[in-house]
Write a structure and sequence with these properties.
The complex is a heterodimer of chains A (279) and B (316). Chain A is built from 13 helices and no strands. Chain A has 279 residues and is mainly α. In chain A, helix 3 runs antiparallel to helix 10. Chain B is mostly helical and 316 residues long. Chain B has 14 helices and 2 strands, in the order ααββαααααααααααα. Chain B has a two-stranded antiparallel ribbon with strand order 1-2. In chain B, helix 3 crosses helix 14. The longest helix of chain B has 38 residues. The radius of gyration of chain B is 26 Å and the shape is flat. The chains are: A mainly alpha (279), B mainly alpha (316). At the A-B interface, helix 1, helix 3, helix 4, helix 5 and helix 6 of A face helix 1, helix 2, helix 4, helix 5 and helix 6 of B. Chain A: It comes from Brachybacterium fresconis. Chain A: It is found in: Cell membrane. Chain A: Keywords: Cell membrane, Membrane, Sugar transport, Transmembrane, Transmembrane helix, Transport. Chain A: Belongs to the binding-protein-dependent transport system permease family.
């Protein structure tokens, strides 16, 4: 299993040194905007547009302002509830569907799989308006249900899990079936425990995706109490457009959970992307 | 129709399975079918309601004028006639195509280049990989806000760096031609790490012996790239081209929304933004759906063609 970590052995050569320098320069240039954001969030208004990277006198003032002016904790709570609910329900339903598509025999299996697969590349933005009309018809506008339920159904997760289940050995369920175990039992006691690595990778991936989601919450909610964090910072930015120190603090608050998740779960994120590469 | 067929089978088997002892094989096949039905139910129902129905509705809605909440007037092809004569629609199509033609090759080449770089065994390569990838995990809203800060007129960091070289008064987000270029740069910046990882996975599947053999035969690094890496990377390359095209054509709404608002003077109004604007800012749900249906049909044709080409996602 490969991770973002590297192996230790290195033989030095001019090419290697040149490549390393190139890598470091590219890496620094890439993270510069994010570093600039985080350090800017600690600068007072007088300094935020200055050219020093580090604040001369770091202050928490901007964060305090953001949290006292706007119900940011409420926004973060909403984002957390929505992301967690979508992740749990999606993984549950997707692993069930994937199990059936990969391990059970029934007429029309290939057709159903093909239909599910073909929905994969029609992303939400393309069908935003009709989805909005459907959700409105179901009476889910301005509700947690409207934020959560439509976000669950995405063929991407089904597809990845199915690929994983197809690769498991066929003898796996034989003994259990001969013993008369139900398919539900096999799914719970054999398939789910084996799926732990891919499920944990998808958990991180789904949570991040939903934490970062903006367009759907923007479309489906108007009640400020239901505002998610991305919507919260976008609204905040519109109000405080010139006060970059506050805007950067708000952006940092919204990005911090994703950055922390990234540092702790890099391997899961990378694995989920790699398995998406149709390996 | 398959669902109904399955439901009928499930119904009969639950009735007869318990009362009449059938041969073991038949019972087991029925049990299996019935189980498959229940396992598939939540996702199929959800995908039906929240993806399939909207896909069909996307096309149906295009023939209606939608007024306020829930009033639908059938107006035939009026929306499409209007679209054909709408310069803003054509401008959005043009901008989307420019964006597509710029971004897809850039993320392809940069993604591959970065993957080739970070697969090397070098000190700190883990940190370098992480740094190149990290923009991808941050939300597009945050990305847009950070870049707005960096590109702000006069006070932004880029403006001051350019000032040092004598380029005063350059406004990356205020100038129509520069604004689209800026959106392209930002898109590449946050997407490149994702494609780097995809390419890295592809590279790691290439057996090391091929390179050993080529080295013994005296092949240069360039020859090894062109003769071994690129041909063996074909499935990955194909995947990247297809998914990047879809992602670029239908994504970026959040970015445009916060970074430029489609401006200046509509210069960054991608089709997807134009649709959103028509629907939710001007209340033209029917017209917006008509524009959207063009995109739905294009994407559907694209995904079906891809399915056929890849034999259901399983490469040879």
């Amino acid at each position: 299993m490969t991770t973002l970590r590297a192996s230790r052995r290195t033989r030095w050569s001019p090419t290697k040194i040149a490549l390393m320098v190139l890598g470091i320069v590219l890496a620094l240039a890439t993270i510069f905007p994010l570093v600039w954001m985080v350090t800017g969030a600690f600068k007072p208004a007088s300094e935020v547009n200055g050219s020093a990277i580090l604040p001369s006198d770091p202050t928490l003032e901007n964060f305090i302002y953001v949290f006292t002016q706007v119900p940011f904790l409420r926004y973060m709570f909403n984002s957390f509830v929505v992301s967690a609910a979508v992740t749990v329900l999606a993984l549950w339903f997707h692993s069930m569907a994937a199990y059936a598509l990969a391990r059970l025999r029934f007429p029309g299996r290939e057709t159903i799989f093909m239909l599910i697969f073909s929905t994969m590349l029609v992303s939400l933005p393309v069908i935003l308006i009709p989805t909005f009309v459907v959700v409105r018809t179901l009476g889910m506008v301005d509700s947690y249900a409207g934020l959560i339920i439509p976000a669950i159904f995405n063929a991407f997760g089904i597809f990845l899990l199915r690929q994983f289940y197809v690769s498991l050995p066929a003898e796996l369920e034989e003994a259990a079936l001969v013993d008369g175990a139900s398919y539900w039992r096999i799914y719970r006691s054999i398939i789910l425990p084996l799926s732990r690595p891919i499920l944990s990778a998808l958990t991180v991936f789904f949570f991040l995706t939903n934490w970062n989601s903006f367009v759907w919450p923007l479309t489906i909610t108007s009640n400020p109490d239901l505002r998610v964090v991305q919507l919260g910072i976008a609204t905040f930015q519109q109000q405080y457009a010139a006060d970059w120190n506050y805007v950067l603090a708000a952006a940092t608050v919204a990005a911090m959970p994703t950055l922390l998740i990234f540092f702790f779960f890099q391997r899961q994120i990378v694995e989920s992307i790699k398995s998406a590469g149709f390996k | 129709m398959k669902g109904i067929e399955l439901a009928r089978t499930a119904g009969t088997s639950s009735g007869s399975g318990s009362t009449r002892p059938a041969s073991v094989g038949v019972t087991r096949a029925r049990r299996e079918r019935r189980a498959a039905f229940w396992f598939l139910l939540p996702d199929t129902l959800g995908l039906l309601i929240f993806v399939a129905v909207p896909m069909v509705l996307a096309i149906v809605l295009g023939f209606f004028r939608v007024d306020g909440f829930g009033s639908f007037d059938f107006i035939g092809i009026d929306n499409y006639v209007r679209m054909a004569g709408d310069p803003q629609f054509w401008s959005s199509v043009r901008i989307t195509l420019i964006y597509l033609v710029a971004v897809v090759p850039l993320i392809f080449v940069i993604g591959l280049g970065l993957a080739l770089l970070v697969q090397q065994k070098l000190p700190f390569i883990g940190l370098i990989r992480s740094a190149l990838f990290v923009p991808y995990v941050v939300s597009l809203v945050v990305v847009a806000m950070v870049w707005q800060f960096m590109l702000a007129d006069r006070v932004g960091v880029l403006s001051r760096v350019l000032g040092l070289f004598g380029f005063e008064n350059i406004s990356p987000l205020g100038e129509p031609s520069l604004a689209l270029a800026t959106v392209i740069v930002v898109t590449v910046w946050f997407q490149m790490g994702y494609y780097m990882i995809i390419f890295l996975a592809g590279l790691q599947d290439i057996p090391g012996e091929y390179y050993e053999a080529a080295r013994i035969d005296g092949a240069s690094a360039w020859q090894r790239l062109v003769r071994i890496t690129l041909p063996l990377l074909r499935p990955t390359s194909f995947f990247v081209l297809v998914t990047a095209t879809v992602a670029v054509m239908t994504g970026g709404l959040d970015l445009i929304f916060v970074l430029t608002g489609g401006g200046p003077a509509g210069a960054t109004s991608l089709l997807i933004f134009y649709i959103y604007e028509q629907a939710f800012l001007f209340g033209e749900l029917g017209y917006a759906a008509a524009v959207g249906s063009v995109l739905v049909v294009a994407m559907l044709a694209w995904s079906l063609a891809m399915f056929a080409l890849t034999k259901g996602g399983r490469f040879e």
